[in-house]
Each structure stands twice: as C-alpha cells, then as structure tokens.
Amino acid sequence: NVEAGETVTCIFTNTKQATVTVVKVLSGDPTGLTTSFGFTSSFGDFSLDPVNTTDTEVFTDVTPGEDYSITESVIADSWGLFSATCGGQGESVNLATREISNIDLDPGESLTCTFTNRRFGSITVEKIISGDPGELTTEFDYTSDFGGGFMLDPVNGDASLDFVDVAPSGEYILTE
User: Fold this and answer.
1) Which of 42, 68, 129, 168 has its CA 20 to 30 A from that of 140?
2) Which of 114, 115, 111 has its CA nearest to residue 60?
3) What is the pLDDT of residues 111-139, one digit of tens each?
4) Are residues 35 and 74 in contact, defined by beta-carbon separation less than 8 angstroms?
C-alpha cells in the first residue's frame, strides 16, 4: 500500500544453506551384522547400513544456526560406539548417550559428522585343576578390569565364566 509521494523499500536477504554429512564407520568385520544403525537428528530420522564398513547420509539445504544434534540408537549386534566427531565449532560429544549436540552451522558450511563403532569381544575365564579335587574346600577368587570381582568353584561345576560385550580397548588384566 503506497501513498502518494511515499517511497517503499523492500529488502530480500538470502542466506546460503549449510550441508551436513553423517558417516557411519565400522572398525572390525561386519560379517553377521543383522541390522542397520538408526539415528535421530535435528535434520530428520534416518538409518545407515554399513555393509562394507561405511555408509553416509547427506542433508543439504540445512538452515545455518546452533544447537543441532545427532544421536545414534543402540543396536543389539554387539557394536559399541568408539568415537563420534563433527570437527565443527563448539559441539559436545557424549559417547554414553551416543550423541553429538550443540552443532553450530555457519552459512554455506559443509560439516561431516562421523560415528565409529567397534565390535565388542568376549572373554572366557576357565579354571582347570590338576589332581583329585576332593580335598579342595574353597573357590578361586578373581579380579579383573573387564568383569570386576568373581569366583570360580571347579568342584561344584562352576569352572568357567563368559564375559560378553567386552569393549575392544586393548589389554585387560585378570588376577587370581
């Protein structure tokens, strides 16, 4: 609505959108993987199926701003989240909740967020005694940094114990 003698100025401001690429990487042999990895994010829900150890999802036309997040769902195929990175500015990574949060996107920025999982391992502790166990009157106590304290009683048939979903972090200590 322009009045006589009035000047009206209309301004259009364009902001270049951002791009976010989410990468799923598996460290270890994916043989036997029976499900895909589900994600919830500020950009929408999606799943990645890293058949050959990697898969990606690309979100284009993301409005620049702050406080975006991406969370990986837990799967039952013995894969633990080992690392999560975005390489941007100010984001927070919480491996326990499997989330990258506080993602801040600048206009035109292309950001890659990578979730790396490792297959859990297992450890079996077995106690073997040599000779007649008839005189044995005690259990064998153990401590470990993968299963805490526990006992094995080979006389009563409790001669082994399995620890599953052990994180592949290198060396562990077991003491009898």
Assistant:
1) 168
2) 111
3) 999 999 888 888 899 888 776 666 666 78
4) no
Distances (CA, A) of 175 to 31, 141, 144: 33, 8, 6
Measure the CA–CA gap between 32 and 48, rounded to whole angstroms: 16
**Which of the 8 DSSP states describes residue 77?**
S
Token readout for 145 is 């940094």
DSSP labels, 84-145:
EE--SBS-EEETTTTEEEEEEE-TT-EEEEEEEEEE-EEEEEE----S-GGG--SPEEEEET
Contact 45, 37 (CB under 8 A): no
Supply angle C-alpha 36, 81, 93, rounded to 5.
Answer: 115
The secondary structure element, H or E, covering residue 28 is none
Q: Please report the DSSP string for 43-56 in residue order.
A: T--EEE--TTSEEE
